[in-house]
Amino acid sequence: MEEFKPPCEECRGRCCDYVAVELEKPTRKKDYDSIRWYLAHKNVNVFVDHSKTWFVEFRTPCDKMNVEKRCTIYKTRPSICRDHGDFEGSCEFYDTPYKEYFSTVREFEKYLENKKIDWKFKFFSK
Ligand code: SF4
Ligand code: SF4
Question: What are the start-end ranges of the H helices in 1-126?
Answer without folding.
Answer: 8-11, 29-39, 79-82, 105-114
